[in-house]
Design a protein that fits this description.
- This protein is an alpha/beta fold and 298 residues long.
- The protein folds into 2 domains: 246 residues, Ribonuclease Z/Hydroxyacylglutathione hydrolase-like (Metallo-beta-lactamase, Chain A, 4-Layer Sandwich); 42 residues, no CATH class.
- Helix content is 26%, strand content 28%.
- The chain contains 10 helices and 18 strands.
- The strands form 4 sheets. A 7-stranded mixed β-sheet has the order 6-5-4-3-2-1-18, with helices on one face. Strands 7-8-9-14-15-16-17 form a 7-stranded mixed β-sheet.
- A hairpin with a 3-residue loop joins strand 7 and strand 8.
- Helix 9 packs parallel to helix 10.
Length: 298
Amino acid sequence: MEITFLGTGSAIPTAKKNHVGTLISFADKNILVDCGEGIQRQFKIAEISPTKLTHILISHWHADHTLGIPGLLETLSMSEYQKKLVIIGPKGTKYNFSLFEKIYGKFRINYEIKEASSGKCLDDKLFMIETLPMKHAGLTNAYSIKIKDRLRIDKKKLKRFNLPNSPLIKDIQNGKDIVHPVTKKKIKAKSLTYLEKGKKITIIMDTLQNSNTVKIAKDADLLISEASFIEAQRDKADSYKHLTVKDAATIAKKAKAKKLALTHNSQRYGDDISPIINEAKSIFKNTIVPKDFDIISI
């Protein structure tokens, strides 16, 4: 899984930090989580075609997370976008899209809107998406994207059984026992395979701390969390219903996440991320503070 941070700013963008947008890519899937103003320019600078998009996840409908949507869909309409775009957001998403189309006209692409609040909101052969509600001004979702565990073939064992290019490989991949074409001995599929654990990414955007944060992030390979303020501005964080850096790091620790990426940082911190990274690492060492256009793989 590859994660491209298209925007890492908060409510007010800066010269170096765009409104939020995070692209998660794996196999032939490209999932954009939130779509702040200026997202199309971010795609251009990152040299990524937005026509690769397969899904958009909307955490909530505040302007800094959604103002890029109409322009992006207009561009897809003019680019002969051929896929079916799946859009998932909190209750009210369908209504808001109907308002977009009243203002801008019908988007000339094939898209489906799913409203979700809790539980599994997409179950694909390759992966699934789960959501839980957060505590912010208005309905807000956090999301987990989980690649499903896969049965993989042990190539060394195949070679040992003299089956490296056998047509029986497909049966083995499907977990079926086989009969060796020469020895006629039965070989159990589990003796030639192993289970590859799928990766999990959790994204928590604007919210106050609540019990669902740890629940949705449990055992995540990567937790991407908003961290609008450092602990010294706790009063502002509580007033605007946001997490502090300490909150986000504590969530990662309690959830036993493997890595934490802090985004949606207030413009007040400018280029100096030392107060953010130092506070986070005092609680959860494997923390990064990505910049716009940073790419990481898990």
